[in-house]
Amino acid sequence: MIRHQESLPAQSIYLTFPMKFGIIGAGMIGHFHAKAITAMTGGELQSVFDLRLDAAEKLAAEYGGKAYSSIDEFLADPELEIVTIGTPSGAHLDPALAALKAGKHVICEKPLEITTERIDLLMAAAELHGKTLSAVLNRRFHPGMDAFKKAAEEGRFGKLTSASAYVKWYRDQAYYDSAGWRGTWALDGGGALMNQSVHTVDALLYLAGPAKAVTAVTACQAHERIEVEDSIVATVEFESGALGVIECSTCTWSKAGHPARVQLAGTDGSVFLSDESFEIWDFREEKPEDKEIKSTLMKGQEAGLGANDPTAINFYQHQRNFEEVVQSIQEGRQCKTHAGEARKAVALIRAIYESAQNGGKKVSV
């Protein structure tokens, strides 16, 4: 596994002084964050906050740290340095603002918030208080993405002509019925696109560059008692001139689950990424590293990560994400997953929803 500390000097404070983490939200995502913090280099779990004290105590007992049911007491801890937020998507603003005002750095689960206006409020607060505001953009942190990004930056696609993303997952009705906030605009911020697909949309923009305009159609085809879409298809025009499709669903069943896919193609090459490995890696001009990539990172028959079961996602990408934030803070630089990066996917998603809600009209991003 690639570890950030490998490139740091032996006497780096990153290796010597781990930063103290606190988790807001002791649900499934909180446990996921705790696993990543426990495994990472450069951080350790200090505390857990949840309004349900029993939930906070359970997570703290499993992974270490002190449990709180008062956010004021949680944030008053002078040793607490970084707060991760794992509340529902539309409930990120208030705890993130509180943490920033208390002088803590913040790493927030996806999406950073459900509107660009709320993200802008958070960015202003981070700047005012001189703290790092980062998002969990975990699909940027694996060897396949490293190789894909390098190829894109080197211009190996020639003129980029096609850039698309596909997330054909499945969530049963029980998933949406399991919590009152699921499938609501107020707390989920959207359906298959905003909730399940925001990481893949982020990956698409990370690789293909900014989007310029979209047209879209959405539907709720297979679920009841939800306000949001379970199916969406959007066409995207990129500033580079490339065209593409974003297709997302939570009603496409398969036994193992379909992987999330990002596909780029141009006049000199094509790469199709399937979760963390490649279905296609093909360039007109080959390079020495291509042989290793084809021998180590090509697609097998793995099940889609999180496609049918949201608990089945690997936490090591979160671990690398958290390590990058710690390293950036201790090096005094902007982290690679800063709020401005997270804002891009939300802006595109909101434009897609605007198009769908207005009969598929073209909307500028």
Short structural summary:
The protein contains 13 helices and 14 strands. The chain has helices at 13-16, 28-39, 53-63, 71-76, 93-101, 116-129, 143-153, 173-177, 192-196, 198-208, 288-296, 316-331, 339-357, and strands spanning 19-24, 43-49, 66-68, 82-85, 105-108, 133-135, 160-168, 211-219, 231-238, 243-249, 261-266, 269-274, 277-283, 363-364.
Summarize this structure as a short list of keywords or feature phrases.
alpha/beta; Dihydrodipicolinate Reductase, domain 2; 36% helix; 365 residues; single chain; 2 domains; Rossmann fold
Summarize the structure in words.
The protein has 13 helices and 14 strands. The protein has 365 residues and is α/β, with parallel strands linked by helices. The protein has 2 domains: 4-139 and 317-336, 3-Layer(aba) Sandwich (Rossmann fold), CATH 3.40.50; 142-310 and 345-364, Dihydrodipicolinate Reductase, domain 2, CATH 3.30.360. Strands 13-12-11-7-10-9-8-14 form an 8-stranded mixed sheet. α5 packs parallel to α6 and α6 packs antiparallel against α13.
Distance between the termini: 36 Å
CATH topology name of the largest domain: Dihydrodipicolinate Reductase, domain 2
Largest sheet strand order: 13-12-11-7-10-9-8-14
For the record, the CATH class of the largest domain is Alpha Beta
| Gyration radius from CA atoms, angstroms | 20 Å
Please report the total strand number as a whole number: 14
List the domain count as a whole number. 2
Q: Helical percent range?
A: 25-40%
